[in-house]
Amino acid sequence: MEKISVVIITYNEERNIRRCLESVMPIADEIIVVDSLSTDRTEQICAELGVQFVKQKFLGYIEQKNYALKFAENEHVLSLDADEALSDELKNSLLEVKNNFSTQGYTMNRLTNYCGKWVRHCGWYPDRKLRLFNHKLGKWGGINPHDEFKFAQKENVKHLQGDLLHFSYYTIDDHYKQVEKFTDIAAKAYFDNGKKAYLLKLWISPVVKFIRDYVFLLGFMDGVTGLRICYISAMATYMKYYKLRKMIKGKQV
Q1: Which of 64, 154, 155, 198 has the fewest CB atoms found within 10 Å of its own CB?
Q2: How far is the C-alpha of 178 from the C-alpha of 167, rounded, in Å?
């Protein structure tokens, strides 16, 4: 049977971390939490559950996840966020995989809970993620805050049955706060990479985003929740490019 290291990054996750850790304990051979100097009970809860706890000032989502991989003793890593947990079906799939690792990476569907409602449309589901992989063969990449594990060479991946449960937002205010935070990060990453923000893109992109998510990706099937999600997502697209334009103009002054 192959061993799995579970790696999680945290910051002030006392609301979520116990659920996350307890869900992975049946399949984990070691659990590593890399924490960005939390000021709440995150460390205490991790200590109660006996997991390895490493403190590291936040380096950026991609950089922090790559740093965390250094502590994994096993080749195969299951990478989770603190607000995620394994469904029972996904746990069973992972236990089966431990008996027969037949490829270097495994994807899984992520199902998001928004203010108490499971969201199955809006482009939020199935939201397939590569989260179980041989970490010796790649590293985290992408553009902050949207990270993705990338193999150095092309590798075959398989898909696991079961959902990765994502407890993203407990209140609508949580959603707005994350949009503010993530659009700051995304705009800065775009700016650092020389991305442009033309005026036409600023106005057209949010409209396209809303129509795609609400109409073509069936956001309307999630009722009022779907409408709210699609509206806030479109607003986030606008804010990202608006903030990028401000940075570019500031540089030109």
Answers
A1: 154
A2: 13
